[in-house]
Design brief:
With about 500 residues, this protein is mainly α. It folds into 3 domains: about 120 residues, no CATH class; about 140 residues, no CATH class; about 120 residues, Orthogonal Bundle (Helix Hairpins), CATH 1.10.287. The protein is about 60% helix and about 5% strand. It contains 17 helices and 6 strands. It has a 4-stranded antiparallel beta sheet, with helices on one face. Strands 3-4 form a two-stranded antiparallel ribbon. Strand 1 and strand 2 form a beta hairpin. Helix 5 crosses helix 15, helix 8 packs across helix 10 and helix 16 runs antiparallel to helix 17.
Length: about 500
């Protein structure tokens, strides 16, 4: 019951009342430091009160709980060294990481905890010491891997075509080799080494990705943009295309160019994932993801309707015409592709002035140009501009969340020997087996004194002003005899408040 009440207090809107009641309940807890402590009992979602405060973005409760966990090591003048307990914060030994919970929640207030002590210092320590070097090395290794795969695709086994053309539009001059003919020369053996590296890399990608999908869940793993959800879909699809290409090569099945071309596009697009390691490029990947899965997905439904309608009309108009004079609409698939190009203004309106074009073509193309080019494209630009403006206000915040997600990902996947635990063991200071982070704080006492003086001046000014207003109301019937103008009132107030302020300064000195 006490643990349930603690979870309810974390969700209370009245933060001050919740903190006082939280302390009151813990005062009656018999197992304050043991494993049976109320603070360490999770709810049905596996969240302790501390983790729940982070997920809900309750910064007041989070700071209150951190103040209870800290230990002042020493203090000398304005310098203070504090040890912060990393229990439930450090993701090194946590199945459900506190940092991962913060960046995966949909509440923006939760990401503000990343700027608070000691989370900010812990993330900075992990990222600068281990995260950034490993991430840069991984980016370089992936680019070299993609270069190897691209060269294998460019020099894939082909041979001249021996059969006759089936139609005048048939333009094929090379065909794919059979498996027995693909690995004969020294160049073929060199390409085989690159293909083996490509296949091994695809298998490693699947081995690394599948456990995380089972642990987190497909909806959460692929749906969070900060966690790199779309890029996880891209890299898994890329690995599957590589395996499909390998099967088609081993079985001598024609048409391997289809999965191979998909794999090339997806593999190189996944390079954008590594832009999150740089503050200048990281926020732009978030913008691209939000535009693609927000604005562009909604726009594509409208675009598909327009293209289907006008492509069908263009095909019907040119169905009776000679395709040699205007071949952009000679069949229905080609009409769809041509209309798509016209929609994005990639090509100009097809026309042949040596022959008479149908009159309806001019009418339909006029309507298409007005609807597609002038209306819908400008609508898409306006939608993307609005998304860019909204994301730009969260640029630094989103980049920090990306850094945290990347740090947690690397920490989970790298061996323990390459990523030691951050912080200091409490046994060195007689604090048990818990791990702590040492943070050095500089407190300027003069700043706090000046804040007190400023508040004193403000309070005195406010009191004098209220007294002046009361005098004005009392003497409102005798304005002819005595006129307390606003100027005289302000001078009197300034003189009194200034005198009061100098008295405070002299007394403190």
């Amino acid at each position: 019951i006490g643990n349930t009440v603690l979870h309810i207090l974390v969700l209370q809107p009245n933060k001050t009342f919740a903190c006082h009641m939280y302390s009151l309940i813990l005062a009656y807890d018999r197992n304050k430091e043991g494993p049976g402590s109320l603070e360490l009992i999770p709810n049905k979602e596996g969240l302790t009160p501390f983790k729940l405060a982070g997920v809900e973005g309750n910064t007041v409760m989070f700071q209150y709980l951190m103040q209870k966990r800290k230990h002042n090591l020493w203090s000398f003048g304005p310098l203070t060294t504090v040890l912060y307990d990393l229990t439930e914060i450090d993701s090194w030994a946590e199945d459900q990481s506190f940092l991962e919970l913060i960046v995966s929640t949909k509440k923006r207030e939760a990401r503000q905890i990343l700027d608070l002590t000691p989370v900010k210092e812990l993330v900075s320590l992990k990222w600068n010491m281990y995260g950034r070097p490993y991430f840069c090395f991984l980016a370089l290794f992936y680019i070299l891997y993609m270069v190897c795969f691209t060269m294998c695709c460019v020099y894939r086994p082909l041979k001249p075509r021996t059969g006759n053309k089936t139609s005048s539009r048939d333009n094929t001059i090379y065909v794919q080799k059979m498996l027995q003919e693909s690995y004969v020369t020294y160049e073929d053996e060199l390409r085989l080494v690159g293909e083996l590296i490509t296949v091994i890399g695809a298998v490693v990608i699947l081995i690394l990705e599948i456990p995380d999908i089972l642990r987190v869940g497909a909806a959460k793993y692929f749906g969070q943009t900060i966690l790199g959800g779309p890029f996880h879909i891209i890299v898994i699809t890329y690995a599957c295309m590589i395996l499909v290409t390998m099967v088609m090569r081993l079985t001598s099945t024609t048409g391997e160019v289809v999965p191979m071309s998909f794999a090339l596009v997806l593999g190189w697009c996944n390079v954008m994932y590594f832009a999150r390691g740089f503050q200048m490029l990281g926020p732009f990947t978030i913008m691209i993801q939000k535009m693609i899965f927000g604005d562009l997905m909604r726009f594509c439904w409208l675009m598909a309707v327009v293209i289907l309608g006008f492509a069908s009309a263009f095909y019907i108009i040119f169905q009776t015409e000679n395709p040699e004079n205007l071949g952009q609409f000679y069949n229905y698939p080609m009409s769809l592709f041509t209309t798509f190009e016209l929609f994005l203004t990639i090509i100009d309106g097809p026309a042949n002035y040596d022959v008479d074009l149908p009159f309806m073509y001019s009418v339909v193309y006029f309507a298409f140009a007005i609807i597609a080019t002038l209306l819908m494209l400008n609508l898409l630009i306006a939608m993307m501009g609005d998304t860019h403006w909204r994301v730009a206000h969260e640029r630094d915040e989103l980049w920090r969340a990306q850094v945290v997600a990347t740090t947690v990902m690397l920490e989970r996947k790298l061996p323990r020997c390459l990523w030691p635990r951050s912080g200091i063991c409490g046994r060195e200071y007689g604090l048990g087996d818990r791990w702590y982070l040492r943070v050095q704080d500089r407190v300027d006492p003069n700043k706090h004194k000046m804040m007190r003086y400023t508040e004193a001046f403000k309070a005195q000014d406010r009191d004098n002003y209220e007294k002046g207003l009361e005098k004005l109301e009392i003497n409102s019937n005798s304005l002819c005899k005595k006129d307390p103008s606003p100027l005289s009132l302000s001078r009197n107030t300034s003189r009194t408040s200034s005198h009061r302020g100098w008295e405070i300064l002299r007394r403190n000195t």
